[in-house]
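Re: export button greyed out
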Amino acid sequence: MTAPMEITASSNKRIKHLMALIQKRKARQEEGCFVAEGEHLFAEVPDRLLREIYVARSFYQSSREAVDGKDKPVYVLEDRLFDKVSDTKSPQGILCVAAVPQWDADQLISLDAPLFLLLDEIRDPGNLGTMIRTGEAAGIDGIWLLPGCADPYQPKVVRSAMGALYRVPVLEEKPDELLRRWKDKGIRLYGSSLDASLSYDAPDYRHPTAFVIGNESRGISDEMLSQCDERIIIPMKGQVESLNAAIAASLMMFEAARQRRM
Amino acid sequence: MTAPMEITASSNKRIKHLMALIQKRKARQEEGCFVAEGEHLFAEVPDRLLREIYVARSFYQSSREAVDGKDKPVYVLEDRLFDKVSDTKSPQGILCVAAVPQWDADQLISLDAPLFLLLDEIRDPGNLGTMIRTGEAAGIDGIWLLPGCADPYQPKVVRSAMGALYRVPVLEEKPDELLRRWKDKGIRLYGSSLDASLSYDAPDYRHPTAFVIGNESRGISDEMLSQCDERIIIPMKGQVESLNAAIAASLMMFEAARQRRM
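Workaround output, generated via the alternate export path:
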C-alpha cells in the first residue's frame, strides 16, 4: 500500500489531469480512462478497472478504511478543492479514475442469440445512462454507439448508468462494417418508426436481435431505417407524438426479456 | 380581441404575478393556474384552459398570428424581460398562463375497467412529467398523487409532460379515503417490491387496475405495500439494484396496454 498523497493547490498537475478527464472527451480517449464519482460508483468499481482514488480530507478522516485496502494511489484533497473538482451538486467526498472497459466485439457478435441495442445519435447523457442501466436489468448483451452519440464516459452518463457502465459492454463503432457483420451472423435489426404497422410485441425476439434507437428529436434516420429488417411501432393512445428514447428502448428490451423468460 | 399590452419593467405587477406562478406552488394553488412555456405547449393548450399569453417583442413581431386569434389577453414583453421571466435555458419567446384542469374523481373511479397510476412520494419533476407523458401513450385513465409528490404544475414537470398534462387526469388526494373507494369498486392495487415473486407480466390487468409507484430512493413504503392486493416484481438481470421510477411505471403501464389490446 502506498501512503496517501496530499494535494492542496488547484494548480497541482494531478488536479489538472483530473479536471481534463472530467471535462474533455479527448483527454478520456487519449488516456483510456474516465472519472466515476460518489460512494456508490466507487464501491462498485471492479479492481481490474480502478486506477486512482481521490478523496476529500474530511471523507478520508472519517472513512479511510474505504480506500486504504485498495492498493491504488490515494490522493487527499482539501475539502474546498475537492468540491471545486467535483461534477456534482452535493459532492460525497470520493471519486476515482477508472479504465474504460474493453470488450471483444467478435465474441459478443458470436453469442448464441444476442440481444443488442444500437444507438444512433442519442445526444442526451441522462437518456444514454438510463439505457445502459436499464439494459443491464433487461439482460442486454451489448450496447453499440454509432458516431454522433453522447460520450458514454462523460460524468452525467456515468452517474445515470449507476455502475452498469462497468458491466454492460458498450462499444463505439461505425455502422457499415458493423451491420455487415451482424447480417452475416443472422442478427435481425428492428427499428421503431411511427409509420410502421407491426406492433413491437409481435416479432419473436428469442432469435438474435438488435433494437435501433434513434435521435431524441428526429428518430431513426431514413438511411438507418432502410437497413432494418423490420419496422416496429409501440402503439400509443392519446395525442402523444413520441415516447422518450430511454422509455422506448426499455419497453423493447423488456419485451425481449419477457419472451426470453417464457 | 383585446389589443396587446406592452410591459417593459420587471416591477410591473403582471410580471410579479407571473413569476409567482412559475416559482411558487402556493401561488399556483391559490389561483388554480400554472405556466406553460414554449411554442409546443402553447400550441397544444386547449382554449377552455387558456387564460393569458405572454410573448417576447421579437416573437410578437415575427409570429403575431400565433396569438392574435386567441381572444385572450396578450402581454408583449421586452425580449430581455421575457428572458428574465423564462424558466428555460433557451427561451422561445412565448408562454401562457393556463387553468389547472379539473377532473371528476367519481366519474374516473366508475369507469368500466380503469387503469390508474398511484404515485407515492415521487419527488423528481422529470420522472413525474415523463410518467404523465408515457401514461397518456399507454392509455392511463388517471394519475393520482399522494401527499409528498412533486407539484405536477411546476415548470419542469409541465415541460417533461409535453402537453399530456392538459389531457391526462392528474388528481391529488389523501390515501385513506381514496383506497377505500377504490376497493369498493374492485380496483386491484399492484405494488412492485424487490421481495415479490410474482412477475409483473403475470396478473390479468384487463380488470380494474392501479399500479403504485414509490419514492425514487426508498421504493413503496411498507404501509402502502400492505394495502396492495398483489406485490409484483420486474425481473432484473445483472447487478442493477432497481429501475428508474419512470421506467418501472412505463413497463407496468405498457404491459397492461399490451394485455388490453389482445
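The mean pLDDT of chain A is 95. The button fix ships in the next patch.
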